[in-house]
Amino acid sequence: MTFREIEARDVPELFKVRISSRANRMTMEALGSIGITPDSTIKALSVSVAGWLCEVSGKIVGFSMRDLEASGYVTPGCWAKDPVH
Prior knowledge:
Layout: E1 2-5, H1 11-20, H2 28-33, H3 38-47, E2 49-56, E3 59-67, E4 73-79
Antiparallel strand pairs: 1-2, 2-3, 3-4
């Protein structure tokens, strides 16, 4: 298990994890309707958002992101529903 800072190249896999999460389920369409898209996430990471992810055997299985300019979290944490397989 490895933890590291999120990079822009990770964003497509983060969305796969996000939509597979059991808690607070959302589709890509639902995320997009509130302005959360791969492009907006990449932009946020370059401006005011920091994030960390967890990898198991090179596969992203979870992540957390925080807006450094605000007190709220973008997402407090998101884990794949089946991170082992």
